[in-house]
Amino acid sequence: MTILSIDGLSKTFDMHVLGDTQVVGLDDVSFDVQTGEFLAIVGESGSGKSSLLKCLYRTYEPNSGRVVYHGPTRDVDLASCPARTVIGLRRDVIGYTSQFLDEIPRVPAVDVVARPLVEQGHSRDDARETARDLLTALSVPRELWEAYPATFSGGERQRVNLAQAIAPRPAVLLLDEPTSALDPETRRAAIDLLSTYLDGETTVIGVFHDTNVVEAVADRVVVLDDGRLDRVVPVDEYDGEVVVE
Ligand SMILES: Nc1ncnc2c1ncn2[C@@H]1O[C@H](COP(=O)(O)OP(=O)(O)OP(=O)(O)O)[C@@H](O)[C@H]1O
Question: What range(s) does the ABC transporter domain occupy (predicted)?
Answer without folding.
Answer: 4-244
